[in-house]
Design goal:
Blueprint (H helix, E strand, L loop, with lengths): L18 H7 L2 H5 L4 H4 L4 H14 L3 E6 L4 E5 H18 L6 E5 L4 H12 L3 E5 L5 H11 L3 E4 L1 H4 L12 E4 L10 E3 H7 L14 E7 L7 E6 L3 H10 L8 E4 L6 H13 L3 E5 L5 H11 L3 E4 L1 H10 L2 H4 L8 E4 L6 H11 L3 E5 L9 E2 L13 E2 L5 E4 L12 E6 L8 E2 L3 H7 L5 E10 L5 E6 L4 E3 L2 E3 L1 H10 L3 E11 L3 E10 L7 H14 L8 E4 L13 H9 L12
Parallel strand pairs: 1-11, 3-4, 3-5, 5-6, 6-7, 10-11, 10-12, 12-13, 13-14, 25-26
Antiparallel strand pairs: 1-2, 8-9, 9-19, 14-15, 15-16, 17-18, 18-20, 20-21, 22-23, 24-25
Helix pairs in contact: 4-5, 4-11, 5-6, 5-9, 10-11
This protein binds ligand 6R9.
Length: 572
């Protein structure tokens, strides 16, 4: 379906004067010049993110503005350097060395960031885990990666089957009291005695740095390995997509358990020497607006699920806060419904810039830039240095408006380098020579904008018409009664598949057959007759991942009585 709506109120973009020109001329080599490895040949991403600034006159600048309902602390680049050095020394004393795997399993806190950076400084590979993981999810990840160390809290330790993990030798507990048994350490005690000076392990740019587990539709989660080289992309996308400037106060709302919380919650802001806001605790509209106001956030990176919840909370609550410092808003993780973009413009006076990428890609590949026109519903255009295309299963590039595999020319700096213990899985992504096949389906329009259609396996074929679930969901959320919608194809003897929508209603609306009929009509008239859901089911809540993605495969499994596959990433 062709869309032509354009929002042309450009944000004050600062770092990129012309997207087109950058796209023509940019070479990744140019981005590398910001870093010291240019001189030494060796790197360390944590050094580049923190120490480099501390040594170059930004030592007293605030690096971390941390708060949660119980704590409020801030740290300068110099303090971050010292704290991460201390943690590096803790690991060194314990005996960890380059290439060892260490996991962090705890809620957001300054200690999480000290340990993350400190481990990287030794060349240790870090695996961040969502605090909400239950025992099975923790076991799968630590077992597969043969992690030797874990940083966690006494409360969460109950979900770590330490005795069943022979490789796990060291557990560092944040907030533990009293004597520790062998193999267990008090974070605070160890940090107190560790030196703030550390001899950094200079690594090769292709050495491992991060292990992010992500779930596929079947089987166990996959350990996606990223290397230090990825920082080039984190840095440059931070400059041109997040548009980070020296004076910015930046807030990425993602937890480090999700790749957005590391690439853009740690690396991009700090590699650019920018003050980084971290807010712990739970989501609530008041809390989030307060966080924006209190910290004077200028650049805000979040996700459609959050924007939809804020939209559901209405515009009245926004008026109670002073958000005048905010100048740039971005989104990732799921299709950003046009309705949300329009609402953002009305409510904040700013465009919400969609960006597309994956755990496997390590960094932003397609996005909307401050300098360009936005077509609501489109993910935008490829980052300079990135070649994106729509290809068929044989690798032929498809013309505009043809739906196919969203694919990227290999390689790019932050591309994953391995699926841990699973080379066959890794190869699958590269089965078409010269391309990375994302598993997303999309089309490109005549202006080179990319339009997300669904995961390949989500595309619905109803009476021979291919329907992207996202288009239907986007239309559904425009209806005043609909808070969120998940759409699947349900096998049908006549039509191949029919469209079934699962809908959660906004406050104040009650399920009824009349409402179903009204919603069906709304899609029929607003989108297309064949795209209107034949079946509608109201649900209090839709199944979502911890990063906020609606899990269509779970809806489908429930509907068809099939196994749901790996549910470790599903929120409670
Ligand atoms: C960063 C991240 C990757 C999958 C991806 C796609 C979906 C991400 C999107 C989007 C539509 C966007 N996705 N961004 N879909 N529009 N702007 O989310 O990584 O958790 O690995 O998920 O998320 O389906 O393939 P990850």
């Amino acid at each position: 379906m062709k869309q032509t709506e354009i929002i042309d109120v450009k944000t004050t973009g600062n770092n990129l004067t012309s997207y087109e020109e950058a796209y023509r001329n940019f070479d990744w080599k140019q981005a590398e010049e910001a870093f010291s490895w240019h001189r030494t040949g060796k790197v360390n991403a944590a050094y580049e993110a923190i120490d480099r600034h501390a040594e170059n006159g930004l030592g007293d600048k605030t690096a971390l503005l941390y708060s949660d309902p119980k704590r409020e602390e801030s740290y300068t680049f110099q303090e971050m350097k010292e704290q991460s050095n201390r943690f590096g020394n803790v690991l060194k004393k314990i005996g960890l060395t380059k290439g060892d795997r260490m996991f962090i399993f705890m809620p957001r806190s300054p200690e999480l960031y000290f340990s993350f950076l400190g481990a990287l400084k030794l060349g240790v590979i870090v695996g961040p885990l969502f605090e909400a993981f239950m025992e099975g999810a923790v076991r799968d990840r630590l077992e597969d990666s043969e992690a030797v160390a874990l940083v966690t809290t006494p409360q969460l330790l109950e979900r770590v089957p330490v005795k069943e993990l022979p490789a796990l030798k060291h557990v560092i507990l944040v907030g533990a009291t009293g004597e520790q048994e062998e193999g267990f350490y008090s974070f605070e005690e160890e940090m107190k005695h560790a030196s703030p000076e550390l001899e950094i392990e200079w690594v090769d740019r292709e050495d491992g740095m991060l292990l992010h587990y992500t779930s596929g539709s079947t089987g166990k989660p996959k350990g996606v390995l990223h290397v230090h080289n990825a920082m080039i992309q984190h840095y440059q996308t931070g400059k041109w997509v997040l548009d980070l400037q020296e004076d910015d106060i930046y807030w990425c709302t993602a937890d480090p358990g999700w790749v957005t919380g590391t690439s853009y919650g740690i690396f991009a802001p700090w590699l650019n020497g920018v003050t980084n806001v971290i807010r712990g605790g739970r989501f609530s509209p008041d809390d989030w607006y307060q966080t924006l106001e209190k910290n004077g956030v200028t650049v805000w990176y979040s996700a459609p699920t959050a924007f939809r919840m804020l939209m559901g909370a209405g515009s009245e609550v926004v008026k109670q806060f002073d958000l005048s410092k905010l100048r740039h808003i971005l989104s990732v993780g799921e299709p950003l419904n046009p309705e949300v973009v329009r609402w953002g413009l009305k409510t904040y006076g700013l465009r919400i810039h969609d960006s597309w990428w994956m755990t496997e890609t390590g960094g932003i590949l397609i996005s909307n830039y401050p300098q360009m026109e936005i077509k609501p519903g489109s993910m935008g255009k490829p980052f300079p240095g990135i070649q994106a295309a729509i290809i068929d299963d044989q690798g032929n590039e498809l013309p505009p408006y043809r739906m196919g595999n969203l694919a990227i020319r290999t390689p790019w700096p932050s591309m994953m380098r391995k699926i841990w213990n699973n080379p066959a899985k890794y190869e699958e992504y590269f089965r078409i020579p010269g391309w990375y096949v994302s598993g997303d389906s999309a089309y490109m329009d005549e202006d080179g904008y990319f339009w997300f259609q669904g995961r390949i396996d989500d595309v619905i074929n109803t009476s021979g018409e291919r329907v992207g679930p996202f288009e239907v969901e986007s239309k559904l959320v425009e209806h005043p009664a609909v808070a969120e919608a998940g759409v699947i194809g349900k096998p049908d003897p006549v039509r191949g598949e029919i469209i079934k929508a699962f809908i959660s209603l906004r406050d104040g609306f009650t399920p009824s057959d009349e409402l179903k009929e009204e919603i069906r009509k709304f899609v029929k008239e607003g989108l297309a007759a064949h795209a209107a859901p034949r079946e509608i089911e109201f649900k209090d809540k839709l199944p979502k991942t911890r990063s906020g993605k609606i899990m269509r495969r779970v809806l489908k499994a429930w509907e068809l009585d099939l196994p749901t596959g790996d549910l470790s990433t599903m929120e409670e």
